[in-house]
Write a structure and sequence with these properties.
With about 120 residues, the protein is an all-alpha fold. The chain has 3 helices and no strands. Helix 2 crosses helix 3.
Length: about 120
């Protein structure tokens, strides 16, 4: 057990590569096969093109996702800033009103429905 734990600690930088390699292979191999069969491109060149396309796709997706995250954060900061400014204005303003429940001093007489005066 200690030997396995020691190996995991020693080679912890290799484990993500070993996990991602089969996943990447499952994704890329059909594209490479398509290029070889339909486009008559040699396997090595097709694999290189497929990997480059995959990397470009990852870069593009992360760029779009990054822009979306930045845009949402900017909107959130604006909302929080506006809320804090309005909150500060309502708390600090000299003519702030204190709302107290009003007591009703009038007695309201109810009439039966259909009764006319």
């Amino acid at each position: 057990m200690m030997l396995v734990a020691g190996m995991l600690v020693r080679f912890q930088h290799v484990i993500p590569i070993l996990v991602l390699a089969p996943i990447l292979t499952i994704i890329v191999v059909p594209v490479v096969q398509f290029m070889c069969v339909r486009l008559k491109i040699p396997w090595g060149l097709a694999a290189t093109i497929a990997m480059l396309l995959f990397v470009l796709l990852l870069i593009g997706a992360s760029t779009v996702l990054g822009f979306a995250i930045v845009q949402q954060l900017q909107a959130l900061f604006l909302i929080v800033q506006q809320f804090l400014q309005s909150f500060h204005r309502h708390i600090i303003s000299p003519n702030a009103q204190i709302f107290e429940p009003q007591r009703c001093h009038q007695v309201i007489a109810l009439r039966p429905i259909g009764h006319h005066n």
